TrEMBL record, chains A, B:
This is Beta sliding clamp. It comes from Haploplasma axanthum (Acholeplasma axanthum). CDD domains: beta_clamp. Gene3D superfamilies: 3.70.10.10, DNA Polymerase III, subunit A, domain 2. Forms a ring-shaped head-to-tail homodimer around DNA which binds and tethers DNA polymerases and other proteins to the DNA. The DNA replisome complex has a single clamp-loading complex (3 tau and 1 each of delta, delta', psi and chi subunits) which binds 3 Pol III cores (1 core on the leading strand and 2 on the lagging strand) each with a beta sliding clamp dimer. Additional proteins in the replisome are other copies of gamma, psi and chi, Ssb, DNA helicase and RNA primase. Residues 249-375 form the DNA polymerase III beta sliding clamp C-terminal domain. SUPFAM superfamilies: DNA clamp. Keywords: Cytoplasm, DNA replication, DNA-binding, DNA-directed DNA polymerase, Nucleotidyltransferase, Transferase. The keyword Transmembrane does not apply. Residues 133-246 form the DNA polymerase III beta sliding clamp central domain. Belongs to the beta sliding clamp family. Pfam families: DNA_pol3_beta, DNA_pol3_beta_2, DNA_pol3_beta_3. Confers DNA tethering and processivity to DNA polymerases and other proteins. Acts as a clamp, forming a ring around DNA (a reaction catalyzed by the clamp-loading complex) which diffuses in an ATP-independent manner freely and bidirectionally along dsDNA. Initially characterized for its ability to contact the catalytic subunit of DNA polymerase III (Pol III), a complex, multichain enzyme responsible for most of the replicative synthesis in bacteria; Pol III exhibits 3'-5' exonuclease proofreading activity. GO terms for biological process: DNA strand elongation involved in DNA replication.
Length: 377, 377
């Protein structure tokens, strides 16, 4: 097996493969990247328990002299290619299990694992009609929802994002049971309907790969996995098993109090107030209070018996609906929600002091964020 | 006690005070910054077991309405001032132990500790003749030596940098007993001779403060502490007790092999080779080998039975003195040493395969770095 390739082309592809390498694994072979070097292209594969990635490399700057299949340590290979400053890198198998990597005056000999031990990855064959979606749009949906998924594994299904496709409408919902983010949009794709839960960790890795996309993404769905086709990249992830909770019924529909804010002004006031706020004992997040006074001024407040108090007066950015309200919640949830909106202006809709409140952005169509209040003593 | 001050002036001074706050302390009062508000100025004090800092604030943008002395939580105060975006901040004591901090529409009430509990700091009175030194020069000396001091407390004296002043000559030496860095320079100051060991941690904090210096630094030395006067700042640190080892005798004086290198080329070759190199069991650092061949080519090499080998050929940047040598050492020591030099060209002087080698920079006058080799099996 002998080939040479431009350092930059190889590095760009390895950075994608890296997303498929496991952090820790009982199966040492999974710490490698599988190189299937064929006559005129190379197929790279990496995988862990959640994700499998395959890239077809057939760039013009690839020169293959002899084909073969090897499994090279992912970590060491990526470290080396990153640090090398030559234009081209040459790979050649000198013994059954040693590969020589040459780059200008650097020479590395890496011991290999047996490529025959690499597990066969069963990528979906893509015969069904895919859902086609713009790469930036998909990246945006992930950004708007994935952060609201649960981190704790108490209810595993909540560590994923629920994607539903029904009659040209795509819904994406994530919740950790304290807050929820929901996005809804129309697509012109002709895919079959589906209702799946994708691990949010997988989506975060996918999101980084989407940056390099130059064309639309195709989604192929099966009962237990989903395949994303992005240019010459296959990105497949397992799905979470079980039924995703019906979140529609927890979203209030009537809002007696509606307050519009400038997002940045509200965000910095909330961040200042939470500097002193006490931690909620369940979530360890800082609890703050928001109060709409009868004169329609808004105060954001925190009290900490040991340290002190913080109080901010924030003016609504336009007319307020409703009279007074006094509600307490985790400042982190509001901060993260505000940051997920693109709009400079947002609106908070209150259903009552012990009911979830809903945030919408004036320019973020069909994005809805919900936060559960905590009880004020 | 009532005063107001520009937010930027206060923050700049608080950032200096922060260097004196302890990471952890059994004495809660030390987590505060002491504010002594006088008729026309404020004296700020912070201190921990090593360092004490005092700053005199008398900028034009300070308006004092009522004097007084308070001790305000350093962490919370700095967090608040950093996050506030108003131009001015107003402080007023409303009860014996509560201070109100107002900035535009933000209001913070902080509980105070009793300022009477703040320990009296005995700053050197500065009656002796100080050593005067340019702030950038002092910063440079710290940068060139402090990193070579020991981190481990096995031999506490080695966690400091030895500063000796003798007949207008200043020597600074640091060593962790595996490598050593030494700087020597002439000063025109008339101070008494001294021989002190300053904790390297204190020097690292001092170094950050030196960035703001607008004039020369004055050093006042006593048997157990040293005071640095920088503009309106007093920075005092305890000294390490005990005799610093005589390092002169371990520096070889005869070098049969001398190899000049381009610093950046050598550095990147060493960094690449150490990607695969095995760890030294004592220091946990990567061991690499440097070999001068009879044809005067230099090879840098590492072997790792599990992972593989790395080899780099580096051309000396000018004529080599001596014939062959083959020496092993910790790559991290060489990397850190090379980074401390300003010169683009450096010279490595070898005294023998089991003797320390010495690095000098062609443009770094009177800076010497020494590294102990490890035995090659």
């Amino acid at each position: 097996m002998t080939f040479s390739i431009s350092r930059d082309t190889l590095l760009n592809n390895l950075v994608i493969m890296q997303k498929g390498l496991p952090n820790r694994t009982p199966l040492p072979i999974l710490t490698t990247i599988k190189f299937e070097v064929r006559e005129d292209h190379i197929v790279l594969t990496s995988s862990n328990t959640d994700i499998a990635i395959q890239v077809l490399v057939d760039e013009d700057d690839l020169t293959i002299t002899k084909s073969g299949v090897v499994a090279i340590s992912g970590k060491y290979l990526i470290d080396i290619v990153r640090k090398v400053d030559s234009k081209r890198i040459e790979f050649s198998l000198i013994e059954d299990r040693i590969i020589v990597i040459k780059a200008d005056r650097s020479e590395f000999k890496l011991r290999l694992m047996d490529a025959n031990d690499y597990p066969e990855i069963d990528f979906l064959d893509g015969t069904t009609e895919p859902l086609t979606i713009d790469a930036d749009l998909l990246k945006n949906i992930i950004r708007e929802t994935s952060y609201a998924a649960a981190i704790s594994e108490k209810r595993p299904i909540l560590t994923g994002v629920n994607f539903k496709y029904n009659e040209n409408k795509l819904y994406a919902v994530a919740t950790d049971s304290y807050r929820l983010s929901q996005k809804e949009l129309k697509l012109r794709s002709k895919s079959d309907n589906f209702d799946i839960v994708i691990p949010s960790k997988s989506l975060d890795e996918l999101s980084k790969i989407l940056d390099t996309a130059t064309s639309d993404v195709h989604l192929y769905v099966s009962p237990n996995k989903v395949l994303f086709k992005i240019d010459n990249i296959l990105f497949q992830t397992r799905l979470l098993e079980g039924a995703y909770p019906n979140t529609v019924r927890i979203i209030p529909t009537e809002f007696p109090v509606v307050i519009p804010f400038n997002k940045e002004i509200l965000l910095s006031a909330v961040e200042r107030v939470s500097l002193l706020s006490p931690k909620d004992k369940d979530t360890n997040y800082n609890i703050i209070k928001l109060k709409l006074n009868s004169n329609h001024s808004v105060e954001i407040h925190s009290t900490n018996s040991e340290i002190g108090d913080a109080n901010e007066v924030v003016s609504p950015s336009a007319d307020v609906t409703g009279s007074v309200i006094n509600i307490a919640f985790s400042s982190r949830y509001l901060v993260e929600a505000l940051k997920s909106f693109n709009s400079p202006e947002i609106v908070i809709n209150f259903a009552g002091e012990v009911k979830p409140f809903v945030i919408k952005g004036t320019e973020d169509e069909n994005l809805l964020h919900l936060i559960l209040p905590v009880r004020i003593d």
